């Protein structure tokens, strides 16, 4: 038998339910208060391995229980809940206002999203988003998705660290075939990055105005764009060099060409690509953006 140090009751095993309902404590907090007491806590059946007999017994016990009234419904599809929801919305009643204020004060809910400080890492991220990213708006938040290829693992890892650095949260990973997608949800993503949400092919967002004033920022944005949508091919027998940025957004193709011209290159323009074809320029630009190399990692 185990004696609870707070209420002095005897138990076979002290459960988290007892601690939370009786003393408003978690098992971890109880251990901090009484580190010298040698006890063990009850493990919820759902945490047992699926091959365990205890887990299977627990799953079988659920079969005889009544199904919850809300199963299969949302507040927009259940007629009773929908009526209450519409009434509260009409009367401007926020039944989570007090809880939300409390969580904001405790720091569990973030309500301030300052602008990003301009840096080469931010310039690279913007180039990456313009090339391979997608921002989608929702009623209460936004999502940022960056699609990459698994054959460039350094770029995949670098992108994850950049997103962690700027958004202070770990992006979720989705993988399908050779494709990898990093995704985060947060407010004001579009506004802080200066990139419009929606279809990238029809977007009028190009290289931001502040990047045109700094050669360093321009180089790092070009690196992000070429890492996302660029390709370098060299055929030595015919001495053919091709370093191209392929995209279906006319505004972005024009901006990439303009940026290359400002850096003393001579790009060629095609319907869905802007490219460099001179050997000396290809080699010089490859070194300028250290293509497929990542020396600086955001902290």
Describe this structure in words.
The protein has 299 residues and is an alpha+beta fold. It has 3 domains: 2-62, no CATH class; 66-111, no CATH class; 120-288, Roll (Endonuclease I-creI), CATH 3.10.28.10. It has 11 helices and 10 strands. The strands form 3 sheets. A 4-stranded antiparallel beta sheet has the order 3-4-6-5. A 4-stranded antiparallel beta sheet has the order 7-8-10-9. Strands 1-2 form a two-stranded antiparallel ribbon. Helix 6 (120-132) runs parallel beside helix 9. The longest helix is centred in the middle third of the chain and has 15 residues, at 153-167. 24% of the residues are buried.
Index terms:
299 residues; alpha+beta; Endonuclease I-creI; 4-stranded antiparallel sheet; 16% strand
Strand content: 15-25%
Per the CATH scheme, the topology name of the largest domain is Endonuclease I-creI
CATH class of the largest domain: Alpha Beta
Summed up, the helix count is 11
> Which consecutive residue ranges, at least 5 long each, have pLDDT under 50?
none
Mean pLDDT: 87
**CATH-assigned homologous superfamily of the largest domain:** Homing endonucleases
Itemize the secondary structure elements and their pairings.
Layout (H helix, E strand, L loop, with lengths): L1 E2 L6 E2 L4 H8 L3 H7 L19 H10 L16 H12 L6 H10 L13 H13 E5 L4 E8 L3 H15 L4 E5 L2 E8 L2 H5 L21 H15 E6 L4 E7 L3 H13 L5 E2 L3 E4 L2 H10 L11
Antiparallel strand pairs: 1-2, 3-4, 4-6, 5-6, 7-8, 8-10, 9-10
Helix pairs in contact: 6-9
């Amino acid at each position: 038998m185990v004696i609870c140090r707070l209420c002095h009751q005897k138990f076979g095993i002290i459960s988290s339910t007892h601690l939370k309902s009786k003393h408003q404590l978690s098992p971890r907090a109880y251990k901090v208060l009484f580190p010298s007491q040698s006890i063990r806590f009850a493990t919820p059946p759902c945490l047992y391995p699926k091959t365990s007999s205890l887990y299977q017994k627990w799953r079988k016990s659920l079969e005889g229980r009544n199904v919850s009234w809300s199963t299969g419904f949302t507040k927009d599809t259940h007629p009773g809940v929908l009526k209450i929801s519409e009434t509260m919305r009409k009367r401007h009643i926020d039944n989570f206002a007090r809880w939300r204020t409390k969580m904001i004060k405790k720091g569990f809910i973030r309500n301030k999203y300052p602008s990003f400080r301009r840096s080469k890492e931010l310039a690279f991220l913007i180039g990456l988003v313009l090339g391979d990213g997608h921002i989608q708006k929702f009623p209460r938040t936004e999502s940022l998705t960056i699609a990459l290829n698994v054959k460039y693992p350094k770029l995949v890892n670098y992108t994850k660290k950049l997103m962690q650095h700027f958004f202070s949260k770990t992006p979720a990973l989705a993988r399908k075939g050779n494709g990898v997608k990093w995704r985060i949800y947060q407010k004001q993503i579009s506004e802080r990055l200066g990139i419009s949400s929606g279809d990238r092919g029809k977007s009028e967002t190009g290289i931001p105005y502040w990047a045109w004033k700094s050669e360093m920022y321009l180089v790092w944005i070009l690196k992000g764009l070429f890492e996302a949508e660029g390709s370098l091919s060299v055929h030595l027998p015919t001495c053919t060099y091709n370093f191209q940025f392929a995209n279906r957004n006319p505004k972005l193709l024009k901006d990439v060409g303009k940026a290359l011209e400002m850096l003393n290159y001579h790009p060629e323009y095609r319907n869905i690509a802007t490219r460099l074809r001179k050997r000396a320029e290809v080699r010089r630009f490859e070194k300028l953006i250290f293509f497929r190399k990542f020396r600086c990692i955001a902290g």
